[in-house]
Amino acid sequence: MAKQPRKKQEVETTGHEWDGIEEYNNPLPRWWLWVFYATIVWAIWYTIAYPAWPMISGATEGYKGWSTRANVAQELAEAEAANAEINDRLASVELASISDDPELAGYARSAGAAVFKTFCAQCHGSGAAGAKGYPNLQDDAWLWGGTIDDIHYTVSHGIRNEDDPDARYSEMPAFGELLEPEQIEQVVNYVMSLSPTYEPQDASLVTEGETVFLDQCAVCHGDDGTGDIYQGAPNLTDAIWLYGGDYETLMETVTNSRFGVMPPMGGANLSEAEIRAVATYVHQLGGGE
Amino acid sequence: MSDTQPDAPSLYAAREPVFPKKVYGRFRNLKWLIMIFTLGVYYLTPWIRWDRGPNLPDQAVLVDLANRRFFFFWIEIWPHEFYFIAGLLVMAGLGLFLFTSALGRVWCGYACPQTVWTDLFILVERWVEGDRNARLRLHRQKKLDFRKVRLRMTKWIAWLLIAVATGGAWVFYFTDAPTLLIDLFTLNAHPVAYTTIAVLTGTTFFFGGFAREQICIYACPWPRIQAAMMDEDTLVVGYREWRGEPRKNSDEVKAGETQGDCIDCMACVNVCPVGIDIRDGQQLECITCALCIDACDDIMEKIGKPRGLIDYMALTDEQNERAGNAPKPIIRHILRPRTILYTALWSLVGFGLLFALFIRSDIDMTVAPVRNPTFVTLSDGTIRNVYEVRLRNKHGEDRPFRMTVSGDPAIRIQLEGTPYGAVTVPADSTMLQRVYLMAPPSSEPAHSERTEVRLWVEDTSNGERAYQDTIFNGRDN
């Protein structure tokens, strides 16, 4: 590499000066200039090829017909196609045997978690911990049964909705119209006494409440208050309350009744594979039977 | 600096071809040795076999990107242990600081792939076309006769073969080398392998054959960074101008004139691979390959003058020697607080990594407490916490792992999907396991805000175990 002689050049300046430092008005290197022209040409081609110019309704589409929506649609279709085989397998095997196949179970759990966060988390929470009136899916109490088949049926058809004739259905009467206020107070005291966290209060109310309970409530909740999963009647003897286990809440529940609704996820909402995936996911959250 | 005024400023300078002359000497010999060693390591490493037992690759050095594993002899690095790579990069950085502050651009001159491959390409060029003068003649010969075509084609084909071997060796680091070699020749290898080989062949051919010193001068950022790390004690290649000047060759010497030791034979310029004249002083192009030292020493010996007219020296030596004092010994330039500090830091990181490597266990887990919700009340009032545990089995066989908990006797453990506290983790893989810790309703942990617990995992086949500490959240949370 021979050294270029260092030249002291008489180049005109731009006239700008800062603290005695002047700016030369040197021409651009040739290659630089050509790159600059090339970028202009490229920019013009780009606005013709791709969506660019704003018009009254929308923008020019560009001759390549490229759009981000089409990209997304294509990628979704590709993902669907890539999962088609395992989805078919998931939709066709025995529900109870999914957990025996590690690959299928792993896929169902991951896919189910995604489905859950899209379709279920609005009511049941992103961690499936539920809220007042929306069951916690991580615990071991199930209103309509906690086997994988029960969960699958509930997800498919929903509860007490009008969209699916096969939806799980039951109705608790509003006892405010059937019982005297003191009877309601008695039965609420009795129900509270069934819970493991009960702190004894008025024993006479509890005794009278038991009579009312056996007359009015036991037909669904059972003589011992342990509920009935075939009617979605909650177990009243455990530590879990869907709406709350304090006196005021129970008064409200018995007086006005409750009518929790869950929409059906089958049919137009989710595919069979997706329902099975989310059922698998919910089943392995910790309470699956 | 001259004050001549050219007609118009030139905005582009064409490359002046460099034809380095053959040279003998101790630095040239050192460079040959380093070239044989580095190229040998590069080409042969993927072929070293290392038995790791069943289900694991038997290649000693393997970057298994598909399965996210890095194998280096007896060491296996998983993605979560990437800090080892980060540590090695820190060591590489400190090592370069050390070498640069002590020996200047020694990396550029001896070990940089650009230098090593360019050296190899020049060697081939010399074999095919002859030494400097023959190459210059061939370059200046306008007529494209048979001899010129033959020599050029021979040289380029030899370069291309080296380039293909270079690109080819690279891909062997990423998959089983013997299998890939067969696949490459039977056209069954993955397109990525062919593309990688093609790209590396192209870059090697172009960088080593044609771009050469221009990569160092214009493309590489490292020389500019190195300049910031040198100081007045850093050893660089320099010319003892006070001894050499005024330079005269025998034709110019007139009786009675003073003459320096430099006889202006241009030997140092002719051997320079970056085409500079070291007698102009330190220049940004100089990669300190020391070939000019060898060339000059040879001449000095022939004319009966002491060696070292061009030599490794430091800036402080100049003032010293001009004042007539003896230069500091080389070792005192190298051993000074700065280099000792770099060495200490380098060793510290090195020992840290070695320590981390030896305390690693073959059984490993990470625990991620599920905090959405923080706890779950079960129907009997039991408080349950959920943990997502990653269990790692680094062996080539399936292993039975049992999990236990310690920290509070009331807390029991349960694993999702199994009534037992044990699972089998498949060979060489990670398993994600939901783990439940449960405290009875009336127990202490169920009521406390936080309880510290320790999760244990044990290989029931050999008793090896590991633990992770975590927190159990109670009701009053």
What's the layout of helices and strands?
The complex is a heterodimer of chains A (289) and B (477).
Chain A: E1 13-18, E2 21-24, H1 30-49, H2 68-92, H3 102-124, H4 148-157, H5 181-194, H6 203-216, H7 218-221, H8 247-256, H9 272-283
Antiparallel strand pairs in A: 1-2
Chain B: H1 26-44, E1 61-64, E2 69-72, E3 75-77, H2 83-103, H3 106-111, H4 113-129, H5 132-140, H6 146-172, H7 177-185, H8 191-211, H9 213-219, H10 222-229, E4 236-239, H11 241-244, H12 267-270, H13 291-302, E5 310-313, H14 315-322, H15 330-334, H16 337-358, E6 363-370, E7 376-377, E8 383-393, E9 399-406, E10 412-415, E11 422-425, E12 429-439, H17 444-447, E13 450-459, E14 465-473
Helix pairs in contact in B: 1-4, 2-16, 4-6, 4-8, 6-8
Keywords (chain B): 4Fe-4S, Electron transport, Iron, Iron-sulfur, Membrane, Metal-binding, Transmembrane, Transmembrane helix, Transport
Pfam families (chain B): Fer4_18 (PF13746), Fer4_5 (PF12801), FixG_C (PF11614)
GO molecular function (chain B): 4 iron, 4 sulfur cluster binding; metal ion binding
Features:
heterodimer; A: 289 residues; mainly alpha; Cytochrome Bc1 Complex, Chain D, domain 2; 9 helices; B: 477 residues; alpha+beta; Immunoglobulin-like; five-stranded antiparallel sheet; four-stranded antiparallel sheet; 17 helices; 14 strands; elongated
Could you explain the architecture of this structure?
- The complex is a heterodimer of chains A (289) and B (477).
- Chain A has 289 residues and is mainly α.
- Among the domains of chain A are: 83-166 and 268-283, Cytochrome Bc1 Complex, Chain D, domain 2 (Orthogonal Bundle), CATH 1.10.760; 175-256, Cytochrome Bc1 Complex, Chain D, domain 2.
- Helix content of chain A is 46%, strand content 3%.
- Chain A has helices spanning 30-49, 68-92, 102-124, 148-157, 181-194, 203-216, 218-221, 247-256, 272-283; strands at residues 13-18, 21-24.
- In chain A, strands 1-2 form a two-stranded antiparallel ribbon.
- In chain A, strand 1 and strand 2 (21-24) form a beta hairpin.
- In chain A, helix 5 crosses helix 6 and helix 5 (181-194) crosses helix 8 (247-256).
- With 477 residues, chain B is an alpha+beta fold.
- Chain B has helices at 26-44, 83-103, 106-111, 113-129, 132-140, 146-172, 177-185, 191-211, 213-219, 222-229, 241-244, 267-270, 291-302, 315-322, 330-334, 337-358, 444-447, and strands at residues 61-64, 69-72, 75-77, 236-239, 310-313, 363-370, 376-377, 383-393, 399-406, 412-415, 422-425, 429-439, 450-459, 465-473.
- In chain B, the strands form 4 sheets. In chain B, strands 6, 7, 8, 10 and 12 form a 5-stranded antiparallel beta sheet that branches.
- Chain B contains 17 helices and 14 strands.
- Chain B folds into 3 domains: 26-228, no CATH class; 231-336, no CATH class; 363-473, Immunoglobulin-like (Sandwich).
- The A-B interface holds A 1-11, 26-27, 29-31, 99, 125-127, 129, 136, 138-141, 196-197, 235, 238-240, 284, 286 and B 1-6, 9-13, 15-16, 18, 213-214, 217, 274-276, 280, 285, 370, 372-373, 376-381, 384, 386, 416-417, 434, 436, 441.
